[in-house]
Amino acid sequence: MEHSPQSNDTTLFNRDFSLRLTNQILEKEASKGSNFVASPLSLHVMLSLIAAGSKGQTLQQLLHFLGSTSVGDLNLLSLRIINLASPAENLAAGGPLLSFVNGAWLDQKFSLKSSFEEIARSSYRAELKSVDFETKAEEVVKEVNSWAEAATKGLIKDLLPAGSLDSDTALVLANALYFKGAWDQQFDTSSTQLREFHLLNGQTTVQVPFMTTGRNTRHLYRSFDGYKVLQIPYQTSQDHSRKFSMYFFLPVEKDGLHNLIKKNIKLNPGFLNQQFNLRLEDDLSDFWIPKFKFSFQLEASKSMKEMGLTLPFQAGELTEMVDSPNGNRLFVSDIFHKSHIEVNEEGTEAAAVTATTFVNCCLGIPTPRFVADHPFLFMIREETHGVVFFVGAVLNPLLEA
């Protein structure tokens, strides 16, 4: 399979650190038997904004991991991504409902550097607020969490844990992504039925509601060595400016998820960006997709450090964000990421929020069939620009958190 021909701006996003980071966390969670969903797009925009406030070796390290040569390019790419998911773009009727917003909460002792504030407002459309971490840290936790909940239509709650902010906190940056798309051809709820889903241990099954389509429905499908791919398009806006699809990657073997991740995702970070050249099958002899709904959360800094992105977590060169009255320097303390997804007969609703806290210190088969009755991967991708919005895995559709 060849990489899809995409413009320079989104090609940069597709090979960046955030997608590789998501893939690494996916592998870890799958080995634990956990459902997983995250947004490489949300993580990418957060790291780009951190890069805009960095200099020296820290900036160079961020540029290296994000696959870019300049902050200007990252800012331009982030603006294009934000525009792609902007509510203003939803005015063309029929397409998915999308929103992507950024926010910043700065301690009242500090002021943002004018250059960083201009970038945050113009390239990232960030809403800026002055707060009091010294005496009202827990109130700010509640404020950020309420902002995230509102921005994700109630899907993401309690993003920041209690006690995650204190008098040492200087700045919180956050973004929130929301997606709601209806299938181009919706499933018939009257055909949904309970079927067995095989868990990864190969011995246990659970009863799960499965969706199917009518006998004459055509499906975008293809079988590869060891796995099958199914693409389900969402309804498209009238101007066809954005085309979203959900992909399901189903191992042939019921216990084949780890092998799929190891052979394809891990060895080829660009796996999800390929053109899979799927074919329209007139009729799959057996076609069932489980309904599922779950949330996932992580603190991403440990995984980032393991992959070599270390300098933003050290005091030194995050000097381009904030004017500090005492000359103290910021460093990243925590990066919280929380995502949610629900897939049912009507379509998909998904959301993701990333918040960063800063402190100052000192095979093919003869009769095609697609029965996702064992652990599988999925992604939501915008086809025109080739941007991956969400990546995940379902190991047990009944697990909600």
UniProtKB/TrEMBL annotation:
<dbReference type="Pfam" id="PF00079">
    <property type="entry name" value="Serpin"/>
</dbReference>
<dbReference type="InterPro" id="IPR000215">
    <property type="entry name" value="Serpin_fam"/>
</dbReference>
<feature type="domain" description="Serpin">
    <location>
        <begin position="19"/>
        <end position="397"/>
    </location>
</feature>
<dbReference type="InterPro" id="IPR042185">
    <property type="entry name" value="Serpin_sf_2"/>
</dbReference>
<dbReference type="GO" id="GO:0005615">
    <property type="term" value="C:extracellular space"/>
</dbReference>
<dbReference type="InterPro" id="IPR023796">
    <property type="entry name" value="Serpin_dom"/>
</dbReference>
<dbReference type="InterPro" id="IPR023795">
    <property type="entry name" value="Serpin_CS"/>
</dbReference>
<protein>
    <submittedName>
        <fullName>Serpin-ZXA</fullName>
    </submittedName>
</protein>
<comment type="similarity">
    <text>Belongs to the serpin family.</text>
</comment>
<dbReference type="InterPro" id="IPR036186">
    <property type="entry name" value="Serpin_sf"/>
</dbReference>
<dbReference type="InterPro" id="IPR042178">
    <property type="entry name" value="Serpin_sf_1"/>
</dbReference>
<dbReference type="GO" id="GO:0004867">
    <property type="term" value="F:serine-type endopeptidase inhibitor activity"/>
</dbReference>
